[in-house]
Specification:
The chain is α/β, with parallel strands linked by helices and 429 residues long. Helices cover 40% and strands 13% of the residues.
Length: 429
């Protein structure tokens, strides 16, 4: 037994059986991990090139006051993001509070009364249901503002149903969307190759339709991003992949310049747009975060693969399969009971550097239909690029594992989750 194994078993309480199972799965994934390392290296140099092209300097880490006019740091951040993601323009702002907000201002900035929105990957993530008006009391939803909504379900094999989409598109269709990540579902994530074919298909049908991608959890999983393969606009969160665990808050939108301008008017107000808005000294963290992001994402996706492999070896159904091509950092495990879901999250919380002593419990989290249990002992509250897990307390009792600022920490989360299920008598080894 090597030094690390001794530390894990003797001081950190990992059962030898749990460690042996995890190490065996890790060895089987070596070739897949090598492929991920190549993607990581490509993206690291791509990010570096964007920094050098835009002549990023330590003077960009200073910040303005008041309205934030002529904020050179904010400007360079947005140019760097636009270049990394192959877009004409970007908004990268601390005023965007999360991924849902970034997506909401994208939808509301572009759509107008009488327009139609179509989701092409089934229903959207839970928190967007109230934004669209599928659920809730309205209160400024797209539905209340006169925007109609349709959704096209994925085919049985997880691919986008092009014939059904063609049938759904009508004269009022203004925007079509894909959600790259799985959300609280058991489907596969949508790959960049699929997104490219989808955008090309839609634009052939009608070049005026805006193709939008919810890119949350998807950044740096491939060597290309949606806006590099024909998508008009995409949005995401800085406390997920692109923040690299260093951004304290914020969201981004990248895409066509004319669309970004419209979205900026929703972010602030008409006539002001993106000209104002303080960065509150966060440009250093945002820039350093996206510089580190390819490596951080690499560790997180490796951890997700390991999680899938370990739980599959224990007899659980997992989504995606360990060696499936991935387009997000999420690993779902069907645990079959509320007790098992809570125990899994207890294990993840116990693996955290922050608040490891806290016990996660289900609660009525704002924006979600069901009670949610969430483990997130993170340096940045709610940062899901850091090791975390969450689950709606509803059948079939899937839990969603993601993140880890390093692969080693993500692996430790897997170890502690299995440990906890075993300790509570919910798993036989």
């Amino acid at each position: 037994m090597n030094n690390t194994e001794q530390l894990l078993t003797n001081k950190l309480g990992i059962y030898r059986k749990v460690l042996a199972i995890t190490d065996a799965c890790e060895k089987k994934l070596a070739d897949s991990f090598a492929e991920l390392d190549d993607i990581m290296a490509y993206n690291q140099y791509k990010v570096l090139a964007a920094f050098q092209k835009n002549r990023v300097s330590d003077t960009h880490f200073a910040w303005n006051t008041g309205y934030g006019y002529d904020d050179a740091g904010r400007s360079v951040v947005e140019k760097v993001y636009a270049d990394i993601f192959g877009a004409e323009a970007a908004l990268v702002r601390t005023q965007i509070v999360n991924g849902t907000h970034a997506l909401a201002i994208t939808l509301m900035g572009i759509l107008r009364p009488g327009d139609e929105l179509i989701y092409c990957t089934g229903g959207p993530y839970d928190t967007l249901e109230e934004v669209i008006g599928i659920r809730g009391e309205g209160k400024g939803s797209l539905k209340e503002l006169g925007v109609t909504y349709k959704q096209v379900e994925l085919r049985d094999d997880g691919s986008i149903d092009f014939p059904a989409l063609k049938k759904a598109i009508g004269p009022k269709t203004k925007m079509v969307c894909v959600q790259r990540a799985t959300g609280y579902s058991s489907r596969k994530s949508i790959t960049v190759d699929q997104i490219e074919k989808w955008a090309e298909y839609v634009h052939q049908l009608n070049p005026d339709i805006v193709c939008m991608t919810d890119n949350c959890y998807g950044e740096f999983l491939d060597i290309k991003e949606p806006t590099e393969v024909g998508v008009d606009v995409m949005a995401g969160s800085l406390i997920k992949n692109p923040g690299g665990g260093l951004a304290l808050s914020g969201g981004y939108v990248c895409g066509r310049a004319d669309l970004i301008e419209k979205i900026s008017y929703r972010m602030t107000c008409p006539g002001i747009g993106g000209e104002c808005g303080l960065t509150f000294g966060q440009t250093r963290a945002i820039l350093q975060g996206i510089f580190m992001a390819p490596k951080v994402v690499n560790g997180a996706v490796k951890g997700a693969m390991l999680c899938g492999a370990v739980y599959k070896s224990l007899g659980y159904k997992v989504f995606p399969e360990p060696r499936d091509k991935r387009s997000d950092i999420i690993q779902a495990v069907c645990l079959g009971s509320a007790d098992a879901v809570v125990a899994f999250c207890e294990g993840i919380q116990a693996a955290a550097p922050i608040d490891s002593y806290v016990t996660p419990v289900p609660w009525a989290m704002p924006g979600y239909e069901s009670e949610v249990v969430m483990a997130a002992g993170a340096f940045v509250q709610g940062s899901s690029i850091e090791l975390s897990a969450d689950a709606p307390i509803r059948e079939p009792y899937n839990v969603y594992f993601q993140g880890g600022l390093t692969y080693e920490h993500s692996k430790f989360g897997v170890l502690k989750s299995v440990n906890r299920l075993y300790e509570k008598g919910l798993l036989n080894l």
